[in-house]
Every structure is written in C-alpha cells, then in structure tokens.
Amino acid sequence: MQLSQHLSEYISACFTGLWVQSHEHDDALTEIAQMCTAENWRLVVWDINRGLSIHRQDDASVDTGTNDPLAAIRSLDTLGSSDGASLLVLVNFHRFLNSPEIIQALAAQITKGKQNRTFVVVLSPLVAIPVEL
Hints:
This protein has helices at residues 3-12, 25-39, 69-79, 100-116; strands at residues 17-21, 42-47, 51-55, 61-63, 86-91, 118-124. A hairpin with a 3-residue loop joins strand 2 and strand 3 (51-55). It has a 6-stranded mixed β-sheet, sandwiched between helices. By secondary structure, the chain is of the alpha/beta class. The chain is built from 4 helices and 6 strands, in the order αβαβββαβαβ. The chain has one domain: Rossmann fold (3-Layer(aba) Sandwich).
C-alpha cells in the first residue's frame, strides 16, 4: 500500500496526529502533495530552512517566511476549512520535540484538529514520539 493510501485512510478516520517515517522526504512530499491535490485538501509544509510554505493546486507554493516551529503549529488554526482537510507536514520535526512548549502546542492542535479537520503530519527519518503525544 502506498503512503498516500495510508494517509488518506487515516485522514478519513480523523486521526489528526500522524507520523511518517521516511528517509526520502522529497518523494514523500511529492506523494502527499499529489494526494492533497486529488482530494482537494490544503497542504502546508514546514521545515527549519524554508519555513512555512502553503502549497496551491497549481503546483506553486507561497512562502510565508516563518521558520519558528511554534508559529508553524499555531498557524494550522487559521488554515482549517469546512470544505476539506488541511494538512501541516512538519519535516524533520523530531529535532524540536524536546521542548515542552512544542509538545503542548502539538497536543492542543491534535485535539482541535477533530473539530476543524486539520491534521499534523511529522515527516522524519526516525520515530521518536514523546509520551505526552
């Protein structure tokens, strides 16, 4: 089963916090972007180098310029939509999960995601989920 099939099933079941283990981030992001386009879902990607980028249906992306990991998580509140899902993919975010503020913000966003159909996807080469999550 492909990554997009797994994610689509989890999103349909409203699993609002997801972890994808991959060493091939570009391939994974391409597949996630294709899935979001096919499902008409909003995709936002964050990494420490590029910051927050909102991907559009025309394969372009809008760079918001924020490389603050806490601001990236909080931005998902404004991206919720009643007509579809919004995904925030956090690339190599395992590096930031030693911060109590980050863990608390993620926990709150994962809980809120069930009401506003927003999903947090951590894309990382290893799985290191804090016990709080």
